[in-house]
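haha ok so turns out i had the wrong file open the whole time. this is the CORRECT one, sorry everyone. sequence first:
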Amino acid sequence: MMRKEFDIVIIGSGVAGMTTASNLASAGKQVAIVEEDLWGGTCPNRGCDPKKVLISAVEAKDHIQQLQGKGLDTIPKVNWPDLMAFKETFTSPVPKQSKESLESTGVETFTGKAEFINDHRLKVNEDELTAEQFIIAAGARPSILDIEGKEHFLTSKDFLSLPEMPETITLVGGGYIAFEFAAIANAAGAKVHVIQHNDRPLKAFDRELVDLLMEQLKSKGVTFHLNIEISKVEKTSIGYSLRDDSNFQLNSDLVFCTTGRIPNTDTLNLENAGVEYDKKGITVNESLQTSNPAIFAIGDILSKSQPKLTPVCSFEASYVVSYLTGKDTASISYPSIPTMVFSGPKLAQIGVVVDESNDDYELSTIDATKWFSYHRTNEPISKVKIITDKKTGLLVGAACLNNEADELINYFSQLIEKKVSSSEVAKHIFAYPTIASDLPSLYS
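then structure:
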């Protein structure tokens, strides 16, 4: 076994690990990084980036379909193999480019499984890495329902590398991954079923807007099965059969488990390093230090209330770099974080979420379907919710359901973070007609 010494060793080469490793090396630290799977992590290899490439086809098809009889005549078919080949042009170079990028900044890379020997020593294959400090950025992986036949479940990793789109797919779980994959598979011509164990899919989002999104997907052919708890997946001569403990039964060519993600805490031997964790991930203090102050944790492996999203991972990585280089030793302070469902249409929200006006907040619901910004492309629905603080009149939360929700939610994010009043927005002259030019009317 070869023993090597470093100032800092980082576990995981996703966006959080990449950011900390390269920046700490540039700051003069002797840095090593360990990756067990694909260099670059989930997001660019088998997560947000490839998913968004596939969604580009959904967006294009939706736009054309909306303008049928209004200047356009032919609805295109999604050529799945061609679309996947296009996706590969983004994902295939990632591992090599990510590893080379790290090494170009002076980071030493190790490929293999990382296991703590004690709080200053880490085993990777036949190497032993010692360091004064560690950063755990090992991320998360798809969770699998523990039911009979669970070995038949496919995951998001499999969906994003499907060579052909089958006639029927079933998504078990009603989170954002299910809604996004449902839109993609439906646009590609598959008959899509979504099974949710209760009546509250996308439970973190505004319920009215979730119901409206479901209606839009239903109108395109997606079938939702609510209050169904699958207990068995069985392989048949024609595909797979799903059953519950009552009378529900469904046949499908492929079955995907989309019940969320679980932190990769189980293979690191965290107990050997005195690092505490719970079922949601590693627990940390306000400086992102674990129960062992020499070991930090960032990204999707954390047990936290903030959404486990790529930009949040980047934010935490930048904070830890500042903390470890002495530039900022204050507690981490998260801004308002926008969350998105890239479905058809898109659903987004940020900040405070309320169902109705109360003593503290005023809720305004705006049907913008006939507003020029949305009517010009004949969008079937555009709904926006604005939440203001009654004492200050400032925007504190927003939610939107339309094809431009990803753009609109970022405008709302800036208004919330900068504490911009509606009167200040009214003084701006925006390029017209654009989504931004609607802001004075939405926030008034």
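The first helix runs from residue 15 to 26.
again sry for the mixup
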